[in-house]
Specification:
Oligomer: heterodimer
Low-confidence stretches of chain B: none
Distance between the termini of chain B: 60 Å
Mean pLDDT of chain B: 95
Strand content of chain A: 25-35%
Order of helices and strands of chain B: EHEHEHEHEEHHEHHEH
Number of helices of chain A: 2
Structural class of chain A: alpha+beta
Strand order of the largest sheet of chain A: 2-1-6
Largest sheet of chain B: 7 strands, parallel
Largest sheet of chain A: 3 strands, mixed
Distance between the termini of chain A: 49 Å
Low-confidence stretches of chain A: none
Number of helices of chain B: 9
Structural class of chain B: alpha/beta
Shape of chain B: globular
Radius of gyration of chain A: 18 Å
């Protein structure tokens, strides 16, 4: 259950970003989470609801995009997707793969905000 | 009102990652080999580490340990009996160690005077895998009582490990431990990983583990 720590990191980071956009309201926060990041989306959503209370992110929606695991297969000479996390093998040649290129991401991709129009 | 998308592309654990990178640099400069020990509660990390510290010291190596727990300093007291410098990190409910906790507990230790520093993580097979502590080697431990399919159930942790240790081999037979299945499952999740089968009680398998530590330490120095 480290989802609360992760969500707190998101709140801090977004709050920091908002300094450059005074008066803006946050509508959406989009995350990229690797399939191997051991984060449960339901817990993340639950913790998010708690963590944004009383912060500039209050009222925003959390959107989680799952990033598949990609490994480089030496014999095939290409990057392949690992669909089952119970077997790290190339889906083409069945050789074991250990060179992971993607799948551990814990990243804030973007935020969607409503900015206040500047009045002359 | 105008709607705008602000691209961030920022790591959520950036603060931890940056601190860990700083620690890794300190460890490398000091020439100390740092290992992060991760397992479920009850796998026997402390007993394994106790034996490791004792044998390293007997062989003339300088080793220290940081030990993470939710509460109590029982483990630190047990480990300190080996004669090695040991410090307890109480996380007070946090399910994993973070780089900042490690950094804070290094104050006053001369890292260059150490050959090995072991960090015993909080017993948990999920959360510690996301937190880099600046270690060179992450060790996943699994005991013979836990079931051979544990690596399949916790692929994130086993996949991020650099070495695996099977503990309590002295009771493997009594537990009906399926040795081949366990090895196969670990390799299925982390192809090519080194696996050590050990017993802290009898000392079985410790020689191979200590040899590995010595090799890694020598490689670090070079």
């Amino acid at each position: 259950m480290h989802e609360l720590s992760i969500v707190s990191g998101v709140v801090d980071s977004v709050t920091e970003t908002l300094v450059a956009y005074p008066g803006a309201t946050v509508k959406e926060v989009r995350l990229r989470i690797g399939a191997l990041a051991s984060v449960v989306e339901d817990s993340l959503q639950f913790c998010y609801g708690l963590a944004i209370e009383g912060t500039p992110l209050e009222g925003s929606v959390l959107v989680v995009k799952t990033v598949p695991v990609i490994a480089h297969c030496e014999p095939c000479g290409q990057d392949v997707e690992i669909v089952s996390l119970q077997s790290f093998r190339c889906p083409r040649c069945d050789e074991p793969v250990s060179d992971l290129r993607q799948g551990r991401e814990l990243e804030i991709e973007s935020i969607e905000i409503d900015e206040v129009e500047e009045t002359a | 009102m105008t709607t705008r998308i602000v691209e961030l592309r920022r790591g959520i654990l950036k603060k931890n990652d940056e601190l860990a990178a700083g620690l890794r640099e300190r460890f490398t400069t000091a020439g100390v080999l740092v290992l992060n020990l991760v397992s479920s509660p009850g796998t026997g990390k402390t007993a394994f580490l106790e034996r490791t510290l004792r044998e390293l010291r007997a062989g003339g190596s300088r080793a220290a340990a940081l030990v993470g727990d939710l509460e109590t300093d029982n483990d630190a007291r047990r480990l300190a009996a080996s004669g090695a410098p040991v410090r307890q990190i109480n996380t007070h409910g946090i399910c994993h160690l973070e780089a900042e906790m490690v950094s804070k507990h290094l104050d006053g230790w001369e890292l260059a005077d150490l050959d090995f520093l072991f960090i015993e993580n909080v017993g948990n097979l999920v959360c510690p895998s996301s937190y880099d502590l600046g270690e060179k080697i992450r060790v996943a431990l699994l005991s013979v009582t836990e079931g051979e399919d544990k690596p399949l159930k916790y692929p994130t942790l086993f996949n991020s490990a650099d070495a695996a240790v099977i503990t309590k081999m002295d009771i493997a037979e009594a537990c009906g431990f399926e040795h081949d299945a366990a090895l196969r499952n670990i390799h299925e999740i982390r192809p090519g990983i080194r696996i050590f089968e050990t017993s802290a009680k009898t000392g079985a398998g410790m020689a191979g583990w200590l040899e590995y530590l010595a090799e890694e330490r020598a490689a670090r120095k070079a």
